[in-house]
Amino acid sequence: MDFTFTEEQQAAAEAARGVFAGVAPDAVPSPAVTRGAVAEGFDRALWDRLAAADLLGLLLDEESGGAGLDAVALCLVLRESAKVLARVPLLENSAALATLQAYGGPELRSSLPARAGRGELVLTVAANGLTGHDPAELAVTARHHGQNGKNAQDGGHWVLDGVQTMVPWAFDADHLVVPAHTGEGQSVLAVVPRAHEGVVLAEQVSTSGERLGELRLESARIAARDVVTAEGAWEWLRALLTTGTCAQALGLGERVLAMTGDYAGKREQFGHPIASFQAVAVQAADRYIDLRAMEVTLWQAAWRIASGAPGALPASADIAVAKIWASEGVRRVVQTAQHLHGGFGADVDYPLHRYHAWAKHLELSLGPAAAHEEALGDLLAAHALG
């Protein structure tokens, strides 16, 4: 079996490297020396360059002006973006517009995805629920009010009530894609304009200094055409977001290990580079193994999402394995980097502290490895019983 990337996937990664080549992560203020977030808002100039390079519509079909590529290509681009801590909502925007195109109704498919793929609109996703630990779709209720008593397919509007916390890019996006649940246990996705009656945003700041938003929906009326009711839409969007976060963790970890290797090769102690010391070499080798495990599990999960290939277990099993390695691996990589850099790693004039903060943010976003191991165990048990 050939596991090499296609020419189109490699071309997307090469284009991303070109766009991100001029991004300097150490040029952005740090929460250690400034008030507020790591970086206010996102890099609009970089967003425009991504749009010009056709990297915002990777998952859109060619009829909508996209590249017609898959989750593997998106993860390759996200991997490059994380190496420079790019200040763009590339993951959320790409995953949202791909989901809307695949599952949305005709009116929704003909409007938002193409414009978002050209960079004219920015989409984000409220995927953390009320506490960050509970299912996001249970944090918001959705009640349909049809026209003249008709059902959801006959128009009308939906009324949303609830709270979604830790919404990334909430103050910069034009539309927020919000999962919600109905009284019948159905999950829906609502496309909510940021400036809309019944929509209230409150600023939140994460432990890494990242600016997030608490989204409160107070009887917000959303037109039926802007609500996705197709079965599987939320599961597909959640899988893309999760796998994309694993790709970001991999790219960040690879950059941090490269920084550590460069520093260890130059830093001398007792007249020798510390990279020549066995204890240093062993720690670096362990982290390299972590990254390779993160990489192979990422591509397995992305390939399952992209191909829809059947397997003994559902794709959620591969995603769980990727989350386990990404969550644990990125933490170990940055901790080792800080240890080997010594006090230099805490210097706010050196970018390692920003990578450390972002790694913790990604780790918390993915959730604890133990929870994913438990979920994987449940899948294995169900498979054995089936």
From TrEMBL:
Annotated ranges, domain Acyl-CoA dehydrogenase/oxidase C-terminal: 244-372
Top-rank taxon, per record: Bacteria
Domain Acyl-CoA dehydrogenase/oxidase N-terminal: 6-112
Keywords tagged on the record: FAD, Flavoprotein, Oxidoreductase
Keyword Oxidoreductase: yes
CC cofactor: FAD
Ribosomal protein listed as a keyword: no
InterPro entries with a match to the protein in the record: Acyl-CoA_Oxase/DH_mid-dom_sf (IPR046373), AcylCo_DH-like_C (IPR036250), AcylCo_DH/oxidase_C (IPR009075), AcylCoA_DH/ox_N (IPR013786), AcylCoA_DH/ox_N_sf (IPR037069), AcylCoA_DH/oxidase_NM_dom_sf (IPR009100)
Matches recorded under Pfam families: Acyl-CoA_dh_1, Acyl-CoA_dh_N
UniProt family annotation: Belongs to the acyl-CoA dehydrogenase family.
Name of this protein: Acyl-CoA dehydrogenase
